[in-house]
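Database export, one record per block. Field names are fixed; values are copied verbatim from the stored entry.
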Amino acid sequence: MEYISAKEYNKNPDLFETVEPDNDLKNFLVEYVGQNYNSKNVTVEMIVEAMAQEFPEFVLALAEENWVRGYQQALDDVDTGKKIVEAHVNDQQE
C-alpha cells in the first residue's frame, strides 16, 4: 500500500497540467506567464500564481464565490441529512 502525506493529498493534480493555448485568452495567458517565468511550458499553477500577483481582485472574487457555494452546499447537505434521519425515526416509530 502506498502512503502519501496530507500535503500531497491536498494538492490538486490539475495545477501541474501544461496549458495548451487553444483559444485567444489561453494564448494570451500562456504567452504572458511564459515570458514572466521564462518558460515555454506554462502550467495552470503558474497562471494562478501570476493572476494572484497581477490581478488579486479577480482571484479573490473566484475564491469567495467558491467558498460561499461550498458553504451553501454543506448547509443543504445538513438539511437533507436531517430529513433522512427524521424519516427513518418516523418509520421505526410506526
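Remark 1: The mean pLDDT is 89.
Remark 2: The chain has four helices and no strands.
End of record.
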